[in-house]
Every structure is written in structure tokens, then in C-alpha cells.
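Quick entry between incubations.
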Amino acid sequence: MFAKRIIPCLDCKDGRVVKGIQFVNLRDAGDPGELAEAYNREGADELVMLDISASREGRATLMDTVNRVARKLFIPLTVGGGVRALEDARRLLGAGSDKVAINTAAVETPELISELAGRFGSQAVVVAIDARGTGKAKKETGNWKLESASAKFENRGATRDISPVFNFQFPVSESQSEGQTAPRWTVVTYGGTHETGKDAVAWARRVAELGAGEILLTSMDADGTQAGFDCELTATISNAVKIPVIASGGAGGPEHFAEVFLRGAADAALAASIFHFETHTIRSLKDFLRERGVPVRI
Amino acid sequence: MIALLDYGAGNVGSVLKAVQYLGFPSQVVSSPEVLESADKIILPGQGHFGSMLKALEERHLHDVLRSKIAAGTPYLGICLGLQALYEASEEAPGVAGLGLLRGAVTRFRMLPKVPQIGWNQLQIRNGGKGLFKSVADGSFAYYCHSYYGPVVPEAVAVTEYGETYATGIEKENVWAVQFHPEKSGEVGLKVLKNFLEL
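Done. Structure below.
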């Protein structure tokens, strides 16, 4: 059976793995090569490396790091952070990564997505979307319990019966994605410092059309809280596109992963700090998930 | 000489790394003359069925590949390299495949997410020899594809993603896998080793 993927993320700065709360209070979390090997042994399905150096020296170190990590890694490796042009992607893929992740550059130059997909194939292009809730649109009410048999939603007078099997069907009104009513989530860039005002759901659809292979979706509200993934956001985006959605932001414990797969319709889930500081191991997480009926690769 | 056939679509690097890691000397080959002298051929296929077959044709690799296979040279096709063995593909109407397997490659239709990206299980049918020697039934491998080859008698393993499809092929000297052995951890390395040790 087809498995959900668990993906540890290494935030790298100047050749070291760091983890911070919104990039301040950076704590050194180790050597990328060693961590990669450890995660691989522990059963990670893929690895993501994000460079947060944002400097030329940092970029050169990144190539070295990718090379070192990729040499002994035989699971998919995605590298991102400051990728702005075809040349950046070419170098990262040449250094040993299988996929490149683009974020701000995709928002500012959407054609870059098609360019990369055309040149390297969609399977090599991951578009990262950082989304933040506006708190504006009316929140749908419903019964969110995992054990419940069904939940009803009102969508412009019609009611819908939703059964929580593996996917919750969230009503996504067309007018919302066309911008006639305020979007529930907007896209932010530059590490969350810049608000674009773009509807996150509409943007997700667009990146899929432009040739993205996967979406790496980070909830900026949940990120760093360790209080759980944003399942509503994840399910809304995942059900709006045909490409896989990797959930990111908010993981604090194994139950959060179960939730984002069972309620959030995520195809994969990414986490950093809970794995780096050995709060939880991938192995024990996968055992937990298997017990809850989530298909995982053991 | 183990030839990693490069037709310009650029996935050869990861396979080369895996083959090197396993300790086998190999060469990235893009010319028909060099391909002619290969003792084993690996075709890491990626991209579009039509583009790949066209590229093989344009680089004069297509005919050499055919004749080497007919002469008994061990061949391992990966991903598109498996799909190319069929007669045709829905992805590229009118483009002929190598025609070593009956039928046409078609697109996934049953599940909402296409392509299939991630790990899925091998249902091994031939008792763990050949391609899957030392590989347990139910092992996971890494897939990334929107099209699949139908189950044929030569399919020694199948996988299910809505539809059930051929995930491993053995036809005399022709072997092929739909998954990426260079990305499938220990399972993938074992499969590659089984071919390299032939």
C-alpha cells in the first residue's frame, strides 16, 4: 500500500544545522552529514535541507554540504533556500539534490516554476508556500473529532455530509479563490516578513498549473508553536490540487502527525526541531502512526 | 563495461552515484560507438515517453540499444526505462516503444493525486530471485510517475496505486523496474546489486 511520508528538515546556516523560533535564538543542532545519516537509518522517507544563510559564502558552503550529504544518501533529497534562478537549481541538482524548493522567487516570478519544470521535470520542482490566516472570513463549524461518523457543513445554503475517512472535504467556494470575499489564508514571503495579500488556495492551484511537482505548505501561524499542524489549511490546499502536499509547521508530538494525515489530507509531513533534539524518533513516530491506521513505510 | 545510458534527460548522476557506492566501475555513455562495447546497459529513464524515444533516435542510440538487447546484453530499465519496453504509451500517441512487452502504457486514473510520488509496496511474485533476490515481499520502494505499464506475464512484481501495475520485469536478459532503485534506500541498492552482479 501507498505510504504517507515523514520528512525531517535540516535548516542549515554556514554548514551547520540550526533550529530557531522564527530564525532568532538559533541553536546549533549538529553536522548535516551526521544528521542525514542518522535520519536515514531511523527510517526517514526523504530529507529536506533549507539554507538560511542568505549570503554568498553561505551558498558556497551549501554546495559542499549537499555534496557531502548526497554522497551516501539513497532516499530523495530536496534542497531550498534562496533559489532565485535556473542556474541556482542546476547547481543544486548537480551537487546531488533530487529536487529544489522555491518560495519567494516563485511568488515574484511565477514563470520560474514552468522554466524549472520544463528544464528539469516537474518531479524536481517543489514549490514552498508560507501561508498565514487572515482571521477575516467566517470559520466553518463542524465536528472535528477523529471518532465522529460524519460532520455537516453549510456552504451557501447547501449542506454536505462529510465522512472523515482519509480526507476531509472542505468546501472551497469559487468566489473565495477569485478574491471576491476575503481569503482565509494569504501567502507571505521573505521568511514570513512580507505579506503579499495573495489568496493561498488560489496560489496553490496556480503553482500546480505552472508545473510544480509538489507543494511544501507551511502554516506560519502554527510554525514554532509545537501545538499541532494547521489541519484546516492543509486539507483545503490538498483537496484543491492534484499534486502532493507536504504539511509543515507546528509538529509537537506523534498525535499531530496522525491528525494532519487523517484530518488534514496531507500526503507527507515535515518537521525539524522535534527530531533534531531527539524529543521523538522517526521510528517511534511511525509505530504510533501505524497503530492509528496511517499507512507508513516501516 | 557497465554503460549508464545518457540520452540527455539528466537522471544519470544519481544512478551513477549508487553504482559507484556499490563498488562497480561504470561509464556514462551518450555515443552509439561506446554503447556498442557495453557488457551491461542501464537506462535511467525520466521525463516524457515521446521525448525519450525521440532523443534515443536522434542520438542514434535506439538501433544500437535494440541490437545489443537482441544479442543478449543484460539490460536494466528504470522508470521510463521500463515503460519504453512496451509497444506504446498514452503519453505519446504514435510513438513506438521497443515492443518487447505486449500492450500500452496508460495514465493513473483512480486516485486523486497524480503522479504517484512516494513509497509503495512490492508484491513479489517470483519467490525472491533474480531482480528481487534477498528482497522481502512487501518491501517499500520509491516511485515518481504518472503512467504505468500493465501487468504482463514477464512482471515478476506488481504494485497498486488504484490500478495494479508492473513494478518489476524479467524477460531473459531484459530487466526493468518502475521505481527508482537509486532512491529506494537499502531495498533499491539490493535490486541494483542483483543486476550488477549478473
